[in-house]
Amino acid sequence: INNPVVDQAIVEIENTTESLDFNFVLYDINGKIVSKVNPLNRFTGKTQFTIDLSNLASGTYILTSQAGSKYRGTTKIIKS
Is the N or the C terminus of the chain less surrounded, counting Cβ atoms within 10 Å? Predict the structure, then answer.
C-alpha cells in the first residue's frame, strides 16, 4: 500500500505456498471494525484488489489479513 491514500487503497498480495482463502478486516485506530473486505478465494501467485475508503474520515486504519491458520498480517493505511 502506498501511503497516504485518498479514496482507494490498492493492496497487493503474494502467496507462494499453497492455495489458501484470504480474509481481510479494516479497523480504525481505536480498534473498531469499519469494514470487512471481500475475501480472496484460494489462489497462489500475485494478485491485487482495491479497498474503497471514500466514506471514511482522514486518519490511520489497520488492515488485518488472515489465511487459514497459517498466516496473519497487519498493514497500516493512512487516509489523507
Answer: C
